Amino acid sequence: MREPSGVPTWSCAGRERASRQPRRAASATAATSATATTGFVSGRSAATAGPARRWAPQRLWAADGLAAALEEATSQVEPWVLPGLSDLPGLGGAVLTAAAHQWLVADPAQLPVAVLGGRQVRDTLVTEFEQRIDSLRRMDDLLGGENVHGLAVSELRVIVRLLRTGAYNQRQHGRLYAVAAELARLAGWAAFDSGRHQAAQRYWLVALRAAHEAGRPALGANILRCMAEQAVRFGDPADAVTLLRTARAGAADTLTATERAIVAGCLAVAYAQLGDVRSVHAEIAEALVQIERADPAADPEYVYWCSRSVIEYYAGKALLCAGDVAAAVEYLSRSVDQLDAAAYPRELVHHSAWLGVAEVDAGNVEQAVCLGYQVIELAARTASENARVDALTLCDAIEMAGYPGATALTDRARAALRAGNTAAAGP
User: Which residue intervals make up region (Disordered) (predicted)?
Assistant: First the structure.
């Protein structure tokens, strides 16, 4: 799914740049204190606590598969990561799309009337867990995935214990599994943002199964969207399209306008990688229509982050990859201007970096350089491998444009991102 360099094999700035990006970004990434091949970019191995364990995604949909997977996901040893290979997605597209198909066709969840024995689970306790998830989501926005992954897994561990030993009724069963699904999704997102891509995929597969157990198709669709965003980033747009279309079909009657806008925006970017310009424009149009219809009061908590700015960002990236540079600059400029930068500093890195790439393609290299320095400083303060990769992608674009100050910019990126990695690693 990606090259050993640990960076995406494509660029939305145009498929002609795809062959250049890995070489440039690989050398810059290596200049930081460690590469993604050791798990977290801090350089600490994600698998030093013990040998990699067996994990069989096909068992998830067996009668006892979810319970076993949740137990493994919350064990003390970081699950599913192979030493020296933690930067490489460990599951092929066929496995991921097969899981999506299972989610789509599986029979409705058969929830038990009650689980006897153990401590009685009260509604107030479940509500508190739901509220804590929202706090973790917002911490991820501010601090980056490297700082949130362990917290999400710890919370998931408590829920798994409660599911195994508590006493709860049918409605509480559904709510608890929905909490487990969202915590596993968040753990996967934090792992993805940290460069631990094998673990991210496996957390998401567990999350998808738990969402089905909860009887929450929209929650499952959002998990498929996360899986698709990883596939897009690492050059598997066909898999991303399959995942997103499955999400749309499987949760069609339960998706809000905001959720439909997100799926359409992600599809536009995936179709752009495939060169399907007609579908790009159709999905952008759909995303813009749906975000205008959005009613935040009707939205689930996990899509609070989506705004007009996000949809403009998806549209800009898609159009840039499709070759419409002028339109891309317009959309990406609006996305940066409209974004709540204080609440979403990592997203500001993504939006600004791709605006910079678009400015390079538009011939406005000096403007891109100004953005480059801003993006580097932001990325250095964000514990996010994805943010650092986007910063390096912009440096690559500026260097390829032959700008005289590109070397100084690159040197600044190396120094700042190295310092950022050290800070993220802690004492």
Answer: 1-34
Whether 82 and 190 share a structural domain: yes
Quote the pLDDT of residue 231. Answer: 94
If we measure between CA atoms, which residue out of 82, 80, 41 comes closest to residue 195? 41
pLDDT digits (tens, 9 = 90+) for 208-252: 999 999 999 999 999 999 999 999 988 899 999 999 999 999 998
User: How far is CA 367 from each of CA 17, 280, 352, 405, rounded to the nearest angstrom?
Assistant: 20, 27, 11, 12
- List, in order, residues 6 or more apart from 69 with CB less than 8 Å away: 55, 59, 60, 205, 206, 209
In this structure, is residue 324 part of a structural domain? no
Tell whether 321 is covered by a domain.
no
Digit-coded pLDDT (tens) for 163-188: 888 888 888 999 999 999 999 999 99
Both tokens assigned to 245: 């279309």
Domain that holds residue 408: 1-31+340-427
Q: Read off the pTM.
A: 0.83
Q: Per-residue pLDDT for 288 more than 90? A: yes
Residue 117 has pLDDT above 90, yes or no: no
Element housing 295 (H / E): none
Q: Are residues 1 and 89 in the same domain?
A: no
pLDDT, one tens digit per residue, over 344-360 is 999 999 999 999 999 99
User: What span, in angstroms and rounded, lies between the C-alpha atoms of 225 and 241?
Assistant: 10
368 lies in some domain: yes
Burial (Cβ within 10 Å: 0-12, 13-18, ≥19) of residue 50: exposed
What is the domain count for the chain?
2
